[in-house]
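Give me the fold.
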Amino acid sequence: MAKKSVSPAPKIPKALQEKANAIAEILDGFYPQPPIPLKHRDPYTLLIAVLLSAQCTDARVNIITPYLFKAADNPEDMSKLEVEEIRQLIRTCGFSSVKSKAISELSHILMDKFHGQVPQTFEELETLPGVGHKTASVVMSQAFGYPAFPVDTHIHRLAARWGLSSGKNVEQTERDLKALFPESSWNKLHLQIIYFGREYCPARGHKPEVCPICSKYGIEK
């Protein structure tokens, strides 16, 4: 039987690749060793913090989690709490009812199916309640060091603004960014973009003329 032919990946235009390389150099200059923004102690507390960060700022999550983790900082203890107890502890975070239910359910699943440990594959992580591809990517990269490029709405916005992706959704943007940057840089680069966006390239009140990237490429929005 003849082998099925595989179409080669589209060739990246030289100018686009040069722009991506230059942007990576700028980001390295500003954030050579970007810290993980969500406070955590282990894969489980990171997983919970990332789940809470949906529709909630990292700063708010970092205020909430010390109280939550004082009550329960592992799947066994968390699974013993009532959903309403969890909700009260995270009530100042958006969608607290949905998130408290997901935290309770995934903690039970970790105890029942994974011996109380956070799984180390995308497939298994994404079976957990409240855990989508972006959350799984963050855990895989920041907890386990697996090459991943988590793309949230902020990175999606900046990739479009900088002309690195024309993706209509975060999935396409992730594919585009992975093609432009070496795998060894992904884990650090996604954090660099987040920090840079907050400080120099925000969605609102953006001043392109003083942004170190937008001013370089004549980006006006």
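The chain has two domains: 14-33+148-199, 43-142.
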